[in-house]
Amino acid sequence: MPELPEVESLRRALARSILGRTIVSVRINEPRLRRVVSPDFPAAVSGHKIEGLRRRAKYLIVDLSGATSILAHLGMSGSLTYRDKRFVPGQFDSRHDHVHFQLDDGNALVYNDPRRFGLLKLVPRAELESTSELNELGPEPIGDAFDAAYLAHQVRGRRAAIKTVLMDQRVVAGIGNIYAAEILFRAGVRPTRRAGRLKRAELERIVAATAPILREAIDGRGTTFRSYRDSRGRPGGFASRLKVYGRAGEPCYACSTTIRKALVGQRTSFYCPHCQH
Ligand SMILES: [Zn+2]
Description:
Elements: H1 4-18, E1 23-28, H2 41-45, E2 50-56, E3 59-64, E4 68-73, E5 79-83, E6 97-103, E7 108-112, E8 119-124, H3 148-155, H4 162-166, H5 177-187, H6 200-219, E9 260-264, E10 267-271
Antiparallel strand pairs: 1-6, 2-3, 3-4, 4-8, 5-7, 6-7, 9-10
Helix pairs in contact: 1-6, 5-6
C-alpha cells in the first residue's frame, strides 16, 4: 500500500506535468472503486484548470479552478500516471485504467487500480478539512507538530504496540507498515514494545528517525512493492535501502544478526533482535 513517501514523490512528479493544464474531458471506464465515483464527476471536472496539487497523509488533493477539489487515494494498488501522448502502447497495463483525464496539451492522466480500493471524490474546497477522510487525521510526520512531547502525550497509558501506534493515522498521518518498521529500526526500538512503557529517550529517537527516513524515501521515489508505480509508471527506488522490512531470515546490515519477523496488530513486522530493544 502506498505510504506518505510514495504519495509525496508522486505529487512532486505529477506537479511538473499537470499544474496549469486544463482537464478537457473525463472518461470513467469503471466507477466502482472503494466508493463509487459520482456520475457527476466528469461534468464537474471537465473544463477546469488544475491549479494546485497537494498532499495530506496518503491523500492527494487536486485543486481545480472554481471551488472544487478532487480528493484521491490510491488504496492498495492504485496509481495515477501521466501518459505522454507519444507513449508506446504496452508501456502501461491498461486493463485496470478506470478513469481517464484528457488534458489540453494532448497528454492524459490515468487512474489505474487492479484491486479498486482507491478513492476519487469531489469535495468543495472549503470543506476539505472537515471531510470524513481527513477530519480525524493526526499531524504530518514531517513537520513541527510531530515532536517527542506530542508523541509522549499520545502513547500515555496505551497498551498497543509502538508500531501499531505509529501506524494509527489519528496519531500521525501517512506512516504504514514499511516505514514504521524502518523508523523503529533506526530508533533501536522493537516494534512489539508496549507504547505506553517507552522511555522519553526512546520516543525522542523515534521522532528523530521519522522525518529523515521519510525524506530519504521521497528522494528515492518510494519503495517498489507489487504494483506501486510513480507518475511515469516507473517503480520506486527505495527498496534497496530498506534495512529490515521484508528481510526476515537475512543478516542485519549493522550487526549480522538474523532479522526476525513478528505479527504486530495483524501486520507482519520486521526487526533486528540485537539492534532493537
Ligand atoms: Zn542488528
